[in-house]
Design brief:
Helix content: 40-55%
Shape: globular
CATH architecture: Alpha-Beta Barrel
Largest sheet: 8 strands, parallel, barrel
Bound molecules: NADP nicotinamide-adenine-dinucleotide phosphate
Number of domains: 1
CATH class: Alpha Beta
Order of helices and strands: EHHEHEHEHEHEHHEHHHEHHH
Strand order of the largest sheet: 1-2-3-4-5-6-7-8
Number of strands: 8
Length: 293
Amino acid sequence: MVLGTAQIGQEYGIHNLSGKPSEETAYQILDYAWCHGVRTLDTAGAYGDAENLIGKYQETTGHFFHIGTKLIADTADGMVKELEKSCGRLRCSRIWLCYLHRFGACKEKGVLQELERWKAGGKVQNIGISVYEPEELEYIVQNLYDSVDAVQVPFHLLDHVRWLKGGLLQRAKEKGIQIFARSVYLQGLFLQSADSETARRLLAGEALSELGRAAGECGMDIRQLAVSFVFWQPEIDEFLLGCETLGQLAQNLALEKEAGRQRLPDGVLQQVWDISKKVNDIVIDPRTWDGRR
Ligand SMILES: NC(=O)c1ccc[n+]([C@@H]2O[C@H](COP(=O)([O-])OP(=O)(O)OC[C@H]3O[C@@H](n4cnc5c(N)ncnc54)[C@H](OP(=O)(O)O)[C@@H]3O)[C@@H](O)[C@H]2O)c1
C-alpha cells in the first residue's frame, strides 16, 4: 500500500468529519506507516503542508520513504521552479517519482523533455503522469511510453470497466508503465451509508446498497471488498489509500493483510462489474462533486 498524503496536508474529502489532522497526528501517521512497513508515499506540491510535513519527518527520524510527488506547472520553466520548491520542502536532492499533476502538461512544448533531462541527470528517478480519463492513458500508451515510467489512475469498485476495456491497463503494462491506483474508497464515499445526504446528492445510494450486499455475501464489509478488489487486480502494481487518523491507517493496513488471504470469488467480481456499469458519471468523477466541471 502507498500512503496518500493529501489528507494530512489539508482539509480533504467528501465526508471529512475530523478536518486536517494536527501536525502531531500527521507525524504519528507517517511514523506508524513507516513502522508497519509502508515505504512509499504519494504527495504533491498542491497538497497544502504535506510535502513540508514529510520533509520534517524524514529529517528528524532518518526514515526516508520513496516519494511520488506531482508538479502542477505546465511549462518547463514553471516546472523547474516547482521541482526546486518540492525538493526544498521534502529536504531531498532527488525525487523517486515525479508526476505531471495535470495530464495536459505532457503536450506542452519542452515539458516532458525537461523531465527527461532531470531523469538523465539523476534529479528524478521515474517519470509519471496523473490521469483521470482512459483517453489520456491511451495517448500515453501510444505516444509517450518511452518517457513515462508510471501513471496514476482512479481505479476502484465503481470505476474499473472503462480502464479494462480494450485491455488498456494491460497494454500500458506491456509498454513497461507501472500502474498506481488511487481512490480505493472514492474519497471515503464508499464508507457512507446509502441513505446519507452525500450519497443522495451524488445519486450513489443504490450503488452503495448493492456493494454492501455484495460484500456481505462473501462475509466482508465494503471496506474489505474495496481493498481486496484492487489488491487482486492483476494490472494494478500499487494502490494508494489516504487517511486522516491513525485508526484509519491501522485498519487499512489490516485490510490489506487480510486481502492477501482470500481472492474474491468470481460471482462477486461479476456483481461488482454489473453494479459499476449502472453508475452515473458524476459518482465516479470527484472533480464534478462541487460543481467545478
Ligand atoms: N493524482 C491525483 O490527481 C489525485 C487525486 C486525488 C487523490 N490523490 C492521491 O490519492 C490519495 C487517496 O485519496 P483519495 O481521494 O483517492 O481517497 P481514498 O483513499 O479513496 O479515501 C480516503 C478517505 O477515506 C476515509 N477513510 C480512509 N480510511 C478509512 C477507514 N479505515 N475507515 C473509514 N474511513 C476511512 C477518509 O475520509 P473521511 O474520514 O473524511 O471520511 C479518507 O480521507 C490522496 O491522499 C492523494 O495522495 C491523487
